[in-house]
Design brief:
This protein has about 375 residues and is mainly beta. It folds into two domains: about 60 residues, no CATH class; about 290 residues, 7 Propeller (Methylamine Dehydrogenase, Chain H). It has no helices and 32 strands. A hairpin with a 5-residue loop joins β29 and β30. The radius of gyration is 22 Å and the shape is globular.
Length: about 375
């Protein structure tokens, strides 16, 4: 049988007859974190000999215990499948690329798919199950996930502080160094990747690429930034200007561009940016505070903005049906990183501290944590 456990009341005693299998799922939220130890709820079971117990929860993975005095396999009672993959995360603390197994609210960080220290930076697309990684000598490689099988890009190099930005579906990627002028566009990332070198006229502040291969850049202009499109020959078409810094993201599988202006604490969407650009301000109910990153769900409806002025993110509905909503984060968000599924995002790095994630398409989205890397 299956019995749900309330993590806000984590002490539970239950008795089962011989031959039964009990499965417990833990779904901790930020309001329950103080009552959890290392992501697990305290559970006390009194069971008859021969009873099987399966435990699954945030940070717990999938475990099994038997009560007949000897180890038993859960496979004798029911099939146990591998947990789903929520995404991948690059850890700067030990220079590893690790998977996040499970679902939002019940997940854990797995062992690295690359040797520790083999790469100096990188990023992965959970949607296309592909990573783009940079070695210490500057060479760039494509990794198939979860196997970690590497394919080198001949003649392509990147610095150790380079950023890798994937298109929403992971079919394209752009590699650039904030403050530098050079960039690399990688097309057909997960199949037959091809790389093209690009060059901006001034320092790059941010860059993004759509599933159609449209490249948008923010480059420094005076005390602010110029928003522009760049083609594969590095020709630039200016679109607008920002008074300070900003961040970019494309919306789902379309050529609609989101532009977050940190100085103005505003958000704009440019529909059909490559063909017939039409810009409109997104209603935010004044909830933005120096936004530092932005992302959008694959279905094109939901947008999430990470605030830099306070510890929160803001969920926005581009259809205008649901009002803007602020979601408090236990720590300062530093990123908006797309995970698997339609609208799962990661907002902090993982390492010695937990990572915080949320499904922004949920009716009442809230922050959920992925436990820190064990032994970090």
């Amino acid at each position: 049988m299956t019995h749900p456990v309330n993590p806000c009341n984590p002490s539970l005693t239950a008795s089962f007859r011989r031959g039964t299998v009990a499965t417990f799922f833990f779904f901790p939220t930020e309001t329950c974190v103080p009552r959890l130890v290392a992501g697990r709820a305290a559970l006390s079971i009194v069971a008859a000999k021969g009873t099987g117990l399966l435990l699954q929860g945030c940070g717990s993975g999938l475990g099994t215990a038997a009560f007949n005095g000897a180890a038993e396999s859960a496979s004798s009672n029911q099939a146990v499948s591998a947990p789903p993959q929520l995404g991948y995360v690059w850890s700067n603390s030990d220079r590893t690329l690790r998977g996040i197994a499970g679902i939002a609210g019940s997940s854990h960080v797995t062992a690295s798919v690359v040797p520790n220290g083999a790469y100096v930076t990188g990023a992965a697309s959970a949607v296309s199950a592909t990573a783009v990684m940079v070695r210490a000598d500057g060479s760039v490689e494509r990794l198939a996930l979860p196997s970690g099988t590497a394919t080198a890009f001949g003649g392509v190099t990147a610095a150790a502080n380079a950023r890798v930005r994937f298109s929403p579906s992971g079919t394209y990627a752009v590699v650039f160094v904030p403050g530098g002028t050079g960039a690399t566009l990688i097309s057909k990332v997960s199949t037959t990747p091809q790389a093209v070198a690009l060059s901006a006229s001034s320092a790059l502040l941010d860059a993004a690429v759509s599933d159609k291969g449209t490249i948008a850049i923010l480059q420094k202009q005076g005390g602010g930034a110029q928003l522009a499109l760049m083609d594969q020959s590095s020709s630039v078409r200016a679109l607008s200007t920002l008074t300070g810094t900003g961040s970019l993201s494309f919306v789902g599988k379309q050529d609609d561009l989101l532009v977050a202006d940190a100085a103005a604490s505003s958000l704009a969407v440019i529909r059909n940016v490559a063909t017939a650009p039409a810009i409109a301000q997104v209603a935010t109910a004044s909830l933005l505070s120096s936004p530092l990153a932005v992302g959008a769900a694959l279905d094109g409806r939901w947008v999430v903005v990470a605030n830099g002025g306070d510890a929160s993110v803001v969920r926005l509905d581009l259809t205008g049906v649901i009002p803007p909503q602020k979601i408090v984060c236990p720590v300062q968000p530093t990123t908006v990183d797309q995970l698997a599924g339609n609208a799962n995002f990661r907002f902090t790095d993982v390492g010695k501290s937990p990572a915080w994630v949320a499904d922004i398409s949920a009716q009442s989205p809230s922050m959920l944590f992925v436990p820190a890397i064990a032994g970090s």
